[in-house]
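User: Second chain of the day. Same drill as before.
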Amino acid sequence: MDFAFFAVNFGYSKADYNSLTLKERAFILKAYETKVVNESTLLRDAVFNAISNAFRKKGKAFRKLWRKASKVMSDEEFGENLKTVLEAEKKEKNWVSELMRRDKNG
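Assistant: Same format as last time:
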């Protein structure tokens, strides 16, 4: 039954299937399961979005399916920003307490 699954879904031959270890089969099955779940979740979200947009009230904005992802900071950028912050803290030791004092005084 497992061989039939691998043959139909992945195009494995009997020799290919037999060359896999139990651990490799388990990892492949888990990856396939994750792929199916991700695809079905994406389809569910797309259908929900389409229905929401179809039945939205007049004048209300469309609901977007995809949101813009924030830019991921590289390690080099993070290091440079950290250096800048540490230098500023050395120059102005009590900048946080100064801001808090200003905030309290209005």
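The helical segments are 2-10, 14-19, 22-54, 75-91, 95-105.

User: Great, on to the next one.
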